[in-house]
Amino acid sequence: MPLALLALAIGAFGIGTTEFVIMGLLPEVADGFGVSVPTAGLLVTGYALGVVIGAPIMTLLGTKVPRKRMLMLLMGLFIVGNVISAVAPVFGVMLAGRVVASFAHGAFFGIGSVVAAGLVPPAKRAGAIALMFTGLTVANVVGVPLGTYVGQAAGWRVTFLIVAALGVVGMLGILKLVPELPRPEGVRLRHELAALRNVQVILAMAMTVLGFGGVFAAVTYIAPMLTEVAGFADSSVTWLLVVFGAGMVAGNLVGGRYADRRLMPMLFTVLGALTVVLALFTVTAHSEPGAAVTLFFIGALGFATVPPLQKRVLDQASGAPTLASAVNIGAFNLGNALAAWLGGLVIDAGFGYTSPNWVGAALAFSALILAFVSAGLDRGRRAPGDAGAPAARPVAGTERTPAAHTAL
């Protein structure tokens, strides 16, 4: 694998830390600003909606900018947003800082996915994308638990200052390791927008919203669920987030491996299993061992969908992948926002901290139905090659560069 993928993974590590660490610190942030936990959950929803809005905007603004330079600019925006969050005097300012940081998220992963796919042969694209996303999943094993621990011990503001420092490291990694990649010739805005009208692209994005939203319905309010329902001590949340993160890493790597072989069967299996596990979490959340084991599988199954769904979009938007790739990252976060909002609604309605798990199961099942619809359309068109994707075609802007021969 190209060394440049390491730089992308470093940037993903910083972004993954800031996205997920807030979930372990919701009670502390809520206490600090004197708001309820569901209100503090708006920091998750606001970040996710910022990704949805910012992904296409920042990607379109970057169409005239070389991809390496654009990735560095996005990391700069990420740093600014986290500094604002760290020094926010009131809840509204912190929410604004989260939104600023989120504007870097979608475009970074969208452009980064195209760059990663272009550094390897077509048969290894999902694996390359998965390797970049490994930075995000490793953040949940290392960055998020440490950030939660620091936030509980020294204050959540310190956590966000450290996250801003991670952004600086990510920017330096891109500067040092990512090759200079010229803006691809022949790619026009109308082509990028036309790809978003492809029915299969739309279906893949809808699967992203619903499937990944199912995960976030459960984990947005995981801290109060684990402490108030399962009976864990507040200090246990840190190592439980490590368990969740370990599942994410495992699922992401498995998803990347098998998506290059049997993409749609992989999605059928994962989405079906995710539906069952989320439903079971309403029961297993009442015991400490059951909650810990289920949390691992939610992370694994949820992130096993990321490489195949991202590759599905790149395949179906072949010829104009950059905007579609970024918008699909926004779709992941639209699912996050939808799930966080719905989870807050059922909690506020008095159904308890386990009720968001039923919401998650329903969302994951809806994604499974769409996966079958998408596969049926493929069969109806007698699409060549794998059942989950058309025959391999060149993706605009993903031509291999000499860096593709640099081994990790």
From TrEMBL:
Lineage: Bacteria, Bacillati, Actinomycetota, Actinomycetes, Kitasatosporales
UniProt name for this protein: MFS transporter
Record's subcellular location: Cell membrane
Region (Disordered) location: 383-408
Residue ranges of the TM segments: 42-61, 73-96, 102-120, 127-146, 158-178, 199-224, 236-254, 266-285, 291-310, 322-346, 358-377
Membrane-related topology note: Multi-pass membrane protein
InterPro entries tied to this protein: MFS, MFS_dom, MFS_Efflux_Transporters, MFS_trans_sf
Coiled-coil regions listed in the entry: none
PANTHER family from the UniProt entry: CHLORAMPHENICOL EFFLUX PUMP RV0191, PURINE EFFLUX PUMP PBUE
UniProt keywords, alphabetically: Cell membrane, Membrane, Transmembrane, Transmembrane helix
Region forming the signal peptide: none
Pfam families in UniProt: MFS_1
Major facilitator superfamily (MFS) profile domain mapped to chain residues: 4-379
Keyword Nucleotide-binding in annotation: no
Biased composition (Low complexity): 385-397
